[in-house]
Design a protein that fits this description.
This protein has 140 residues and is mostly helical. 65% of the residues lie in helices and 0% in strands. It is globular and about 40 Å long.
Amino acid sequence: MAARKRIIHPGGTRGTVFRQVAQVRLDDALILLEQKRYAGAIYLAGYAAECLLKWAITRRLECVYLPEDFEIHDLAALLRKAGLETLLLEEAELRDVFWALADTWGPELRYLAKSPAPDKANSLYQQIARVYDWIVEQTV
């Protein structure tokens, strides 16, 4: 019996799914960090922030499903589309953390074979968690 292929339609993901997945992936990232699986931890933590921004977009637009044109992996663009950029500009320290993250994080980290140093990975995770918490505070 052939396996059934799952088809994901563009614009077919509910905003609430992004919110749920964001928390699960952040939790997964912490477990990976504790297990010294640094590259995976950083990738998943950044992905959690991406999912949270996508959820924020659906809330801002008051739509059930994330529109297809927002299915991107650009944290800076997602921040703008979520309507949070102006608020972030008021938070000098966090703003710098976010822009550094936006410049270095991307889906290509999935293919990173060399793991970052433990202190660098822990620092990156903490920075991403701060950004994540800030997004939650702005969207609740």
